Batch of 2 targets.
Target 1
Amino acid sequence: MSDTFFTKAPHWEWLIILYFFIGGIAGGSYFLAALLDLWDEPEDRPVARLGYYVAFVGIVLSGLLLTVDLNRPERFWHMLIMSEHGWPMFKYWSPMSVGSWAVLVFCAFAFLSALSALEEEGRVRWPLLGTLRRGVPGVLLAVLGGLCGFFVAGYTGVLLSVTNRPIWADTNLLGVLFLLSGASTAAAALILLGRWRGVGAAAVQWLSWLDSRALVLELVVLIALVVSLGSVARVWLNAWGILLVIGVVLTGILLPLTLHARPHWLGNLSVPAGAALVLIGGFLLRVVVVLSAQGV
Amino acid sequence: MAEPMGFYTDTTVCIGCKACEVACKEWNQLPATHGGENTLSGDSYDNTRRLDGIHWRHVKFIEQFSEDRSQGRWLMMSDVCKHCVRAGCLEVCPTGAIIRTEFDTVVIQSDVCNGCRACIAACPFGVIEVNPVSNTAQKCTLCYDRLQVGLEPACSKACPTDSIQFGPISELRERAQRRAQQLHGQGETRAYLYGADENMLGGLNSFYLLVDKPEVYGLPSNPQLPTRHLVWSSVFSAVGAAVLGLFGLLGLRKRRMDALAAQGEAKGPA
């Protein structure tokens, strides 16, 4: 019997599930927007800007969710500053320590990029922001911010593994799973929101193409994860396992992949329907991973 | 630094009186369970059920009886934080609330903890929980306040059979080895020490003499540090990020090639 069954659950529940979902979308959106930024096609500008807005709103919401989830929310800053000395508090071997700084730094990146996007649209008058879209500053912001975003999307899975809880600490693949899911849910969110923002068809096509690749990778990693759990996988021989198969694999991965391959099934609705299913599946993945371990 | 201090608990002389539970609760002013309501656990004489934020000592009762009840024994063990030399809780704590004291014990500073609960998930023994009064994670402090004024912890002071012994770890280990050998000599060959050497998390500064498998006592047989997953989890994530980034660029390149090809066709042959 795995030694992980002798541990206590940390009661990370709905607030944390929401954070994992929204944080993944925020990080993934910034990464996608940064890629488009660096590729620099004029037709992609609306999607890139949308990605930065989603990233900023998402990371602010994430910060709020994390703070409210603490048992002592007014002490959230203790993760960043040593409460007794005032020096920075940072432990590179603790995912939660690194993650709290990553959320803060990513928030700054997302804020700058969102502000720059607003200036590009003419909603903010501050020409200096234009320098953040060009030359070396532009490349630096996109690359560093994109990496930071990807880190935020993936570190949460690593954080779960750096515990001693069943499922979480019985595999090394949660980090990459959450990262892939974050990227695919971000692409799906941008596809859906793009419909209201007048995003170009070429951009949506690229998002859809990339989403389908991310979904395949996600399925491969999920299967590898279940295999890596060994006998601990029996934790999922119940309703959680059913939700995983039907809600995550069927609804969230296989159905969207089928719609991508057979777009004529739902015509114009194929792409947005596929995106909606990806979002549902991504959310349910986090529900299953977090709550199934909680109950053991 | 003062030398490592801790507990050696000889479970073979525990009588299950729970003086340790009472002394711990009194000294640390922990609230009563369910507001003092008298509830039965249905689990032998176990009244506290588990270690948590308001139970820092937990006496376990394991009844081992044959079918016809002609053969039997009780295993009684006062469970507590193991004060691991390599402590998982200390590793993951993001606020620095969890510290190692000059006595080599592990203490959660309640004025620093913000209740993120990472330590709860990290402890391989399931020791830590949130205390609903302070809303911070709390556990046995090995009576750090008493140690600092030269007193011994409340539980070991109260223990009437000296099942719980407090002292320098080196001395306790010698004593425990002699006791294990004595028991072997008397025919109790199942007796062994749990956590008395560096093999288990660098050594437990609260180690035990047990007479059955660890799982029987609700203890993990091979507890590990949570950071054992840090490197490979991070490596896999980084690889995943690189692959996805590559796919992203490939997709954009493919789109550009297709667009150029379409333009070329539209213009017609040169």
Note: The first helix of chain A runs from residue 14 to 39.
Target 2
Amino acid sequence: MRRIIGLIVLAVIAVGFILTFSQIPFGKDKIDVANYYIKKGIEETGAVNIVTSVVLNYRGFDTLGEITVLFIAALGLGAVLFVERKVQKRASDNQEDKTKNASLILRTGSHLLFPLILLFGAYIFVHGHLTPGGGFQGGAVIASGFLLMYLAFPKQSINKKSSSVVESLSGLVFVGIGLLGLVFSGYFLTNFLPKGIPNTLFSAGIIPIIYIAVGLKVGFELTGIIDDLLGRSR
Amino acid sequence: MIFQLILIFIMIILAVAAVIFKDLINAVVTCAAVSLITSILFYFLQAPDVAMAEAAIGAGLTTAIFIIAIKKTERYEK
């Protein structure tokens, strides 16, 4: 009986969704906001990648909120795992030497790949206003490079202090540039620097600076999450 | 178009397999494969930004976090 009722409810929801979605004109030239961004985006912000111009210029404040959410998530994870680690430390003192080294192939390969992965991540967030990608993607690539190093060398960890200094400084750069916009033009996160010529590296005003800060912040934050989960740095 | 349909079909099979598997490591690896195919589909839908984020976070970091969690708890579903 319950199954039949569940199926009926599912069918009602499915019909509702189909009726709703059939009303939306997908792919038609009707959405005003998107049309405005596509037509005026390059001219107003100087960023060739329209996604970047929306994320950091038209909706820059939302991005600041997004970064704050990520920061709070990392902070909460660290707080929860820190309490557990204190308890575990006494129990696992004598099995310290059980952690084996990774295989030769993984170690050599990670030596070769790690600088290339870092370079690729940096390329993605420095060129965020020109090519697809940006701060979040570049940061995730950098964090995956650090993850490779964590897998290859089980006894080592990043320097937690300097990584958190970089993280906090890049967060401050984002807020500071926003406040500078408030000083120069009267709005938070206004693009107060010259726009430059589109399609060149030094263009789009404050967007590259903010994306570099976002990339470093996301990269070191995700690395810190991996470090907390593995419970390695003491 | 046919290539994308094949990808979607494989994706559905992998997603069902991830639910069925009792060995959680297998389930996590199939989840990563679903993420990878999702990122390829995003690329075909002309959203390279989202494809990049999906490939790096969905297929890379999330898988690692799941595997760390499995390593610290239990490997087999009861």
Note: The mean pLDDT of chain A is 83.
